[in-house]
Amino acid sequence: MLLTSLNPAVVAAGADIADAVTIGGTTLSRSDLVGAATSVAERVGGASRVAVLATPTATTVLAITGALIAGVPFVPVPADVGAAERAHILTDSGAQAWLGELPADPGGLPHVPVRLHARSWHRYAEPHPDAPAYVMYTSGTTGAPKGVQTSRRAIAADIDALSAAWAWTPDDTLVHGLPLFHVHGLVLGLLGSLRIGNRFVHTGKPSPQNYAAANGTLYFGVPTVWSRVAADRQAAAALSSARLLVSGSAPLPVPVFDRLVEITGHAPVERYGSTESLITLSTLADGERRPGWVGLPLDGVQTRLLDDAGDPVPHDGETIGHLHVRGPMLFDGYLNRAEATADVLAADGWYRTGDVAVVDEAGMHRIVGRESVDLIKSGGYRIGAGEIETTLLGHPAVAEVAVVGLPDDDLGQRIVAFVVASTAAEAVPDELIEHVGQQLSAHKRPREVRLVAALPRNAMGKVLKKELT
Ligand code: MLC
Ligand code: AMP
Asked: Residue 146 and residue 136: Cα distance in Å, rounded?
């Protein structure tokens, strides 16, 4: 096996499995997957970059696998993407075509369809490990999303480190219902399964009932999913026969952890990461799983905690510092954004995560929060307050706006926009919410728009977001 392969034909050569991938009502055997994806590779080979509308379907799985086999970097586009965000992603990434599913408005790009029943048995040479696997767009505190470039080597290193941490093997059946346009569902869920060679089941919606019915050994979810599972005793009890329940992408509330232990008998494994770094910290299949803590550095990962002056803080389990990580799974920079890259990724390989944390004497990490109130995590989605504010300011009814993430039992944070209406048009909250959905994406819609007479500001005119509750 080649060290960094993400090609199921290489990784799991020999063994066929009748139900290697189940998604969107379709089941593919390993040979179906390899034959159909290699046929996709033949159609797309030579392209410099392709966009994949990442709906949870077999078409998307084959598009992604085909691009990986051909060594063509793909750009996963959110399945619920709106007009302005789609235009930005296409222009910034320079994608040449849509591969697989086609959005309602393809934005002028040609379409390369995926044929579920086509087969090719051509064997492709393994691309160089440093070659980019994909460009994934992610939100910052301000501005439009940035394209995170990730190499094949980084993905392979991360999956192998997780396989060691979680004793993840080809005997597992991995179940999740998360989007295929972010690290959690795509890299860990799908690419992890392709590389390790285990069965992969996508449940569609990640509802407690769908998880209960899937009969997996290894389950992935964001805290919102686990909180909903924990609230459904019957569904949660059905997960008792699983091997490992894994939570990540946002903090898992301690009461949810405790309830999962009580009903399923499993203490969930918590792990931490980001689009830029992939997963860097995790509790272990055979180690301590401490509620509220995200674990130890994975194989090859180093972490450091710095104070505001850039000096190391003690690992005493109490002193809070800025968390930096370094390891083989880190990204190669933001596409077309050298300055933004230099802001967070140092020449010596340290990535400034933007999270604040504590570490105890044993090296166990706890994430305390984020440095900026302008990066919101809602349902595990990372959303920039700035991009929503810019979008709302583009609506004639909005004179001023401040967007915040308010605490929410279900979503962790919920997006709330405080709007000062303009005199040019009537401000109707539902219309403003819909405007964000149409321009950015459905999952970036504020849950609530509150019309206010003025925003709280300091003497310099800066909005005091902490006063918006
Ligand atoms: C949602 N709805 C709204 C709305 N928002 N309606 C009006 N206004 C709004 N603002 C509607 C939805 O369309 C849906 O309608 C209904 O309300 C329920 O919505 P919901 O509560 O959001 O539930 P759901 O859609 O099921 O979403 C919850 C969720 C989702 C957990 C499934 O947030 C999710 O998939 N999160 C995963 C994000 C993720 O994978 N992040 C990983 C990032 S990678 P209807 O009609 O459809 O029912 C990463 C690295 C790492 O972080 O460490 O992993
Ligand atoms: P994203 O780029 O969407 O993957 O978001 C990355 C961010 O999600 C991190 O910087 C953290 O703020 C947050 N995050 C991911 N996993 C966890 C976790 N287990 N606990 C707390 N925060 C997390």
From this structure: 8
Phi first, then psi: what are they for 35, rounded to 5°? -65, -45
Residue 40 identity: V
CA angle 373, 220, 279 (to 5 degrees): 55
Task: Please work out whether the CB of residue 365 comes within 6 Å of at least one atom of ligand 2.
Answer: no
- The residue to mutate among 249, 289, 381, having the most atoms of ligand 2 within 8 angstroms of its beta carbon, is 249
Tell me the DSSP string of 309-343. TS-B---SSS--EEEEEESTT----BTT-HHHHHH
Could you tell me where the beta strands, DSSP code E, fall in 205-253?
Answer: 218-221, 244-247
Fold for the domain defined by 375-467:
GMP Synthetase; Chain A, domain 3 (3.30.300)
Whole-angstrom distance, CA of residue 130 vs CA of residue 154: 8
Query: Residue 53 and residue 417: Cα distance in Å, rounded?
Result: 28
Residue nearest to atom 9 of ligand 2 (CA): 274
Nearest CA owner, ligand 2 atom 23? 250
Please give the Cα distance from 378 to 250 (Å, whole number).
8
Token digits for 264? 């399923």
Rounded to the nearest whole angstrom, what is the distance from the C-alpha of residue 114 to the centroid of ligand 2? 33
- How far is it, in rounded angstroms, from Cα 296 to Cα 455? 42
pTM of the model: 0.97
Give CA–CA dist 441/249, Å, rounded: 19
Domain ranges of the chain: 375-467
Question: CA 465, CA 454: separation in Å to the nearest integer?
Answer: 12
Averaged pLDDT of the chain: 96
pLDDT digits (tens, 9 = 90+) for 212-261: 999 999 999 999 999 999 999 999 999 999 999 999 999 999 999 999 99
User: Which residues, 6 or more positions from 110, have their beta carbon under 8 angstroms from its beta carbon?
Assistant: 96, 97, 98
